Amino acid sequence: MTAMSLCFMFSAVSLVLLHSSSASRVIFMPFPITSQAYIHVQMARAMLDRGHQVWLVVPDIMVDKNVLNTTGISVIQFHTGYSIEDDIVDELFLKSYLAEESMPFSVLCERYHVIAHNILSNEKLFQQMKAVHADLFVFDDNGFIAKMFVVFPYRLEIPFACVDFSFEPFDRRTAFSPATVPAFRSELNQHMTLPERLKNTLLFLFQLMYRPPWHYEDVVARYAPEMPYVSLDRLVARAELWLVHLDPVVFYPYPTLPNVKYIGSMAAAPPDPLESRFQSFMDNAKDGAVVVTFGSMVKNMPQNITDKLISAFLKLRPLKVVFRFDVTSPDPEQIMTSSWLPQNALLAHRNCRVFVTHCGKSGVYQGVYHGVPMLGLPLFFDQHENAHIMQAKGFGTTRDIRKISDQELADTIKHLIEDPHYKQNITKASTLFRELNGVPVKSAAYWLDHVMKYGGDYMRSSGQEMPLYQFLLLDVLGIIGGTVVVLLMLLICCLKYLCRRFCKTKFKRE
Q1: Any residues with CB less than 8 A from the CB of 427 and at least 6 apart, and which?
Q2: Half-sphere exposure of 363 (CA within 13 A, CB side)
Q3: What is the mean pLDDT of residues 432-443?
Q4: How far is residue 124's CA from residue 437's CA, in Å, rounded to a whole number?
Q5: Model-level pTM?
Q6: What mean pLDDT, rounded, does the chain reach?
Q7: What is the DSSP letter of 335?
Q8: Contacts for 336 with CB less than 8 Å, ≥ 6 apart
Q9: 157-190 as b/e, with b when 16 or more CB fall inside 10 Å?
Q10: Which residues fall within 8 angstroms of residue 90, CB to CB, at 6 or more apart?
């Protein structure tokens, strides 16, 4: 073997050893629904590209359905007892909304309780996580059960980062004013009248005081009794980093802290190549195509709504339609139906003219990223708020899927194509978004890598170390209020004393 060959081999081995020594281990645990898991898969791939090892923790039902491409990602499975998509979203939220009925809240609470308990008490799952020897734990910090996943990194005694989809000032200890920041799901904008500011303030107070019945503030005592007790609220505030799916282009400017990164949506990214059947269909749509999807959680709808949608699409000729729904197309040349479709890649196609969407955050961001006007038909969760903001920004319009007729639906889609203002507004937003955020998942990977290398202590506010009552100055206000009350009582006593003396003196004189 020549000296040059030996030198090359030595260099190669050195590079491998250097790469291995710098690689870290990251566990990703999304809220157990497909759309959230997809975001974590994207982050996991970006971390793989940076040379790290990654694990994805998802329900066994999601693995069985094979809805995620986890090539190169180690998968840890767990059992939930209920499927959130089938037994909660479809059976409770969707059916109640479409039937215009109240949702059975007690059933919702019972199912969330079962899912939370089955996950948090799963000792086999914890031991699998422990065997990873992870350097960082990433989970969804949302208003459902995922916030309580913080108990896993606490038990593992490793740093953690949170992924969130809304402005949450109390968990993150962010100072803000209800006069300028709309509350979550308020459907208000930044410029509020006096009644709207009052409504917004009351909504924030409600958000501060309300705790969902399936949230256990004593989650540590219940599921990590071997660890020192800390409340759920204070434990989540210890996050090294928050990655938030918001930005000022698509939503509003929000007050923030150095360890809270508003990065847009990690679903907004350059497209993968289209499969041949989709590529051929879109290429042949010379007059334009409409992409229609209600997300991964909506499996079916009442027959009358399905018929209404199909009837509206038939009225759009010569436009073609790609419809994510498991139904038979009455005209496959004009309407392509599929139980799955590559949404991001279809929106990126040059012939895509309108995006009909339920207004999930990921979908709205993909529509903006590719500059496609949107028709929002929101169904549940934060979709109504997203649709309201999308319309207020001039990126499209929104309608009620229960009330709109097939003709109105077809006319609205045509209006979005014919009125140039929608395309102009969303094209400008697309340019701004790409300029400011680049590819958001790469930003997310950068910051996760950064806190593993350097830690996040230098970005943390002292407010994130305080109990919430101290951050809100309730103790200070209590002292001030108590002092004012004591002074008023003393003043009243003095006035009473003087009044008695005056009256007594006057009586003697008389």
Answers
A1: 371
A2: 29
A3: 92
A4: 39
A5: 0.86
A6: 87
A7: E
A8: 277, 278, 281, 320, 321, 322, 323, 329
A9: ebbbbbbbbbbbbbbbbbeeebeebbbbbbebee
A10: 297, 298, 299, 300
Does residue 363 contact residue 357 with C-beta atoms inside 8 Å?
yes
Residues near 226 by beta carbon (within 8 Å), at least 6 away in sequence: 155
Among 217-221, 284-288, 382-386, whose mean pLDDT is lowest? 217-221
The answer to whether 349 and 282 are in contact (CB under 8 A) is: yes
Q: Is residue 368 within 8 Å of 395, Cβ to Cβ?
A: yes
Q: Where are the alpha helices (DSSP H) in 349-405?
A: 361-369, 383-392
Give the C-alpha separation, 452 to 472, whole Å: 31
506: pLDDT strictly greater than 70 = no
Q: H or E stretch including 231?
A: none
Give the phi and the psi of residue 398 in degrees, each rounded to 5: -130, 150
Query: What are the helix and strand counts (H, E) for the chain?
Result: 21, 13
Amino acid at 263: I
d(CA 165, CA 141): 8
Q: Where are the beta strands (DSSP E) in 31-174?
A: 53-59, 74-78, 136-140, 160-164
- Residue 399 per-residue DSSP state: -
Residue in this structure with the two tokens 């693995």, named with its chain if needed: 63
Distance CA 233, CA 274 (A): 44
CA distance 331 to 422: 29
Task: Provide the 8-state DSSP code for 465.
Answer: G
Average pLDDT of the segment spanning 229-242: 90
Please give the helix or strand (H or E) that residue 206 lies within, else none: helix 194-209
Please name which of 123, 150, 135, 118 lies closest in space to residue 27, comparing C-alpha atoms. 135
160-164: strand order across its sheet: 74-78, 53-59, 25-29, 136-140, 160-164, 241-244, 260-262
The alpha helices in 266-398, defined as continuous H runs, are 276-283, 303-314, 343-348, 361-369, 383-392
d(C-alpha 494, C-alpha 486), whole Å: 12
User: Tokens for 48?
Assistant: 């793989």
Residue 261: closest CA among 163, 159, 363, 180? 163
d(CA 337, CA 328): 7
Write the CB contacts of 55 (distance below 8 Å, at least 6 apart in sequence).
Answer: 25, 26, 27, 28, 73, 74, 75, 76, 129, 132, 134
Q: Which two tokens stand for residue 109?
A: 């609470």
Amino acid at 24: S
Contact 413, 354 (CB under 8 A): yes
Tokens of 31: 């809220």
